[in-house]
User: What shape does this take?
Amino acid sequence: MKTRNGFVSNSSSSSFVIMGFKLNDNIINKEKFIKKFNPKAWVSREDPFTDIDDIFHDTLYDCDFGIPGAKCLSDDGPGFIGIVLADISSEDSFLDAKTIEVSDCLGRCEQLRKLLEIEDEPRIYTGTRSC
Assistant: This one.
């Protein structure tokens, strides 16, 4: 019999495919983003314990942007924003069948790009993240 010593993790993971944009510190203007999508949080930021980065991330990951399939996903890096093409967790036994026209996906990415004033071109990203 083997005995395991040390840290044991029973974490779940999720793999994804997204067409959109890689987030970095300067792709989205945080102040403009919060004012547009969460104005009440912007007003309440005067609390000295409220960090603009926390408000930004909370707003970013909870927003659907009014565009079907648009979402912000994060892995161990900076994260991605775009149209989710596939998202499956380790607890799921299969990937749901889904079809989207390439032109439709590009159109939604263009809407997102204009809405968030992103200069980059959309790309397809894959990744795995902890859930």
